[in-house]
Amino acid sequence: MLRHYNLLDRLLVETDKALRTIYARPMGSGRKNPADAVTEFSELSDSERKQSARLMRINHAGEVSAQGLYQGQSLTARDPTIAKQMKQSAVEENDHLVWCDQRLEELGSHKSMLGPVWYLGSFTIGAFAGLIGDRWSLGFVKETEHKVVNHLDDHLQRISDSDLESRAILEQMKTDELHHAHVASSAGAANLPGPVRGLMTLASKVMTKTAYWV
């Protein structure tokens, strides 16, 4: 029997997703961690380990933000097909969360302590974008994914060549993000105005610089 969720049900579901994203390991698609395919153990110096940990913490914070964005958009999307796409992308992004979390543990480090801030801010933006219209909501996804790809390219240049595990994770994340951007574009994503893209860039810089340390 198909259950129809009322507003309270949906709020409880979203609260559960938020808590899992920020404080636990959410359910992903079941894909294996790309780092498991690495056959050589990475021997890193203290400075290389610290740099890898800081960059992976940024990536984890970015994935927390992505979850907030997708969940907010799926909640307010008008087209059921687009809402379904958002949820599927969110599941695949959960893989990234799990992989980054696992790598941070292996590196002896921790997730950003500002996870609730990253999630709530992105959830608000996503819900607002969905209320404006699905084309604009998809536009936020496309722009966000392209910015994430740029960050990943930068991190792949800054992370040690010896850190094979982290590099394997980042490469797969990049492939997935490009796919999500393509899906959003194919679904009719609008091109965001320059000022909006500028604000997104500013917000991204604040998050990355903060998550690098905290």
Features:
0% strand
Question: What is the secondary structure topology, with strand pairs?
Answer:
Elements: H1 7-23, H2 46-76, H3 80-106, H4 115-132, H5 134-158, H6 164-186, H7 194-213
How does this structure look, described?
- The longest helix is centred in the N-terminal third of the chain and has 31 residues, at 46-76.
- The chain is globular.
- It is mainly α and 214 residues long.
- It has helices spanning 7-23, 46-76, 80-106, 115-132, 134-158, 164-186, 194-213.
Short description:
This protein is mainly alpha-helical and 214 residues long.
Mean pLDDT score: 89
- CA-based shape: globular
Largest sheet: none
How helical, in percent, are the residues? over 70%
Q: Give the strand tally.
A: 0
Using the CA coordinates, give the radius of gyration. Answer: 17 Å
Which structural category do the helix and sheet elements fall into?
Answer: mainly alpha
Treating each run of at least 4 consecutive H or I residues as one helix, how many helices?
Answer: 7
Strand content: under 5%
Give start-end ranges of low-pLDDT stretches.
none
Quote the distance from N terminus to C terminus: 46 Å
Order of helices and strands: HHHHHHH
